[in-house]
Predict the 3D structure of the following.
Amino acid sequence: MTADTPAAGSRELILSRIRAAVANAPETEIPRGYRRTRSQEGLAELLADRLDDYRATVHVVPAAQVAATVGRVLKERGVGRLVVPDGVPEEWSRAAAGEGGSQIVRDDPPLSAEELNAVDGVLTGCAVAIAETGTIVLDAGPGQGRRALTLLPDYHLCLVRIDQVAGILPEAIGRLDPARPLTWIAGPSATSDIELNRVEGVHGPRNLEVIIIDG
Amino acid sequence: MSGTFLGMPSFPRNAAAAVQDSQLRFNLRKATHTIRDRRLSVVGELPDWAELRQAGKAIKDHTLRHLDTYLLQMEEAVTRAGGKVHWAADAAEANRIVTGLVKATGETSVVKVKSMATQEIELNEALAEEGITAYETDLAELIVQLGDDFPSHILVPAIHRNRSEIREIFLSKMAEWGKPAPASLTDEPRALAEAARLHLRERFLSTKVAVSGANFMIAETGTLVVLESEGNGRMCLTLPETLISVVGIEKLLPRWQDLEVFLQLLPRSSTGERMNPYTSSWTGATEGQEFHLVLVDNGRTQVLADEVGRQALRCIRCSACLNVCPVYERAGGHAYGSVYPGPIGAILTPQLRGMGSELDRSLPYASSLCGACFDACPVAIDIPEVLVHLRSRARHARAERLGMRAAGWVFGKPGRLARAQRMGSRFRRLVPRRLPGPLGGWTDTREIPDIPAQSFRDWWEQTDGGRR
Ligand code: SF4
């Protein structure tokens, strides 16, 4: 068998081809002259503006008004069954279930995909948000649940505390743990595949609503 | 997909056919111009774009220089996190591995999220031969698959189809593949997207194996990253019990921190968005899933061995170079006879395949060398330089070789290039009126696109990237 036969052990073959190919290649210094931080000013407004740009519905409210806002938006939307993962503050789920509000569904024991598919919405917190790019990052941690929870229901209500908001992307990368499964969300699911017309909502939640808690 | 790219005729013949097709030309023009404008505006927003681009280029060069070390790191990290790593020297081996893994699950169908690597190795065809059906789940890929057709653009593969054609395809073909389209389906994009949502939702809930690619792999942590818009990627990555990711070995980045550069470069260059709607990352076996990573060479180490050509491996498949290319705009993606169309295809395909065919030898000529692709490229791949280099490797008439050597001199130094571009008329003479070799057929049927009177570089400087 010649050295170039895949069956000779492709791992070793590929590694040896690489070593031969780069033997005389020069070393490269990596210049990191790009911005690493941004001033903390106006983060809530910037995040709200950028999320709005990608057609999420956004509210910026002080902590004292969060419960009332949660109750109000769910009622307005008429979200019937709402899945709420463990770790979401009691106050929020109580508000969600308030008079004329949603019926709360728990993921314990874990719901099947079919059961989740029959739920109308999901309420979560987040791990990090990025103001400049209008992005929310979930890490499947407390208050967020496993990934399918924010995928199958058609409506996602996400609450972001101002201390979770990073100015720019490099700041967020530093705060995230790559060992966890991460989902970065920038606006509702979208496609531009048909003559480049943007259509919101193909497979993920078609409606994303965000409450930014500032003050 | 039933056809194969490999049996396709050469670029000039394909291009000649495509330029006759006015629907394709109209769609392509609209698409490329729309995305181009969006890209310029979001790139212009970042004060440090030039620095990000430099960092992106350097990180990729550094990774490629130490690719062996980083691949081993990746393997170790994925294994530690409960995943299994497989190595495939060529397409046949990659297909054998994936087919074997699917068979081991006892399943006969898989859902797929758009991946150029699996198109390159023609995985769907290989799976079909073993009785396994691969369902594409990107809206555009679904359109292409249902229409029994080839993708024409990296980013918007169905850009050659208009809405009424898509409606026709959905109405006539969806039933064969699963949930039929509603008989009352209109050609409104919203209605078409809804039909796709319903058609595919059923499939996501019932299919147990998924095949994906990845945009990036992080060596230090063993993390894979997928960027997407629609959510079908999240469906494939999250719901099935087994996930098989097929990834080219050049997709590596050394460190988690490096993503801070590429997650800024890619969405802005690609769809012209600050951030794409969904990005998923996972490390090893996640949330109870079984995870396999198939690392694919398939010609990449051959590209790596070419001092000039290896920069093509920096490519992050953003498609910015396609959208600024005057040849692509007129000829369309199909003319390139490969999953990699446009300027990047013209330098990557012949290198990956080794320029054995007439088509591959003609690809380095599918360019007017105007340099717009280089300016647009977020990892600064000097596509004209590689084109000229490959032309000197492809055999053709002596006179043309001489002409190209002059072009090579012009492209050798940035100053010379800028000067030559400004001296439009003189530079134009370096572009033969009738393209050499097999491309002659193409120029016989149409004019070579003119080099713009004002070079892209000058225009960029004068207008501050189009903002003035
Ligand atoms: S060559 Fe550059 S511009 Fe073209 S697809 Fe690759 S990264 Fe994008």
About this structure: Residues B 269, 315-321, 344, 376-379, 381 surround iron/sulfur cluster (CB under 6 Å).
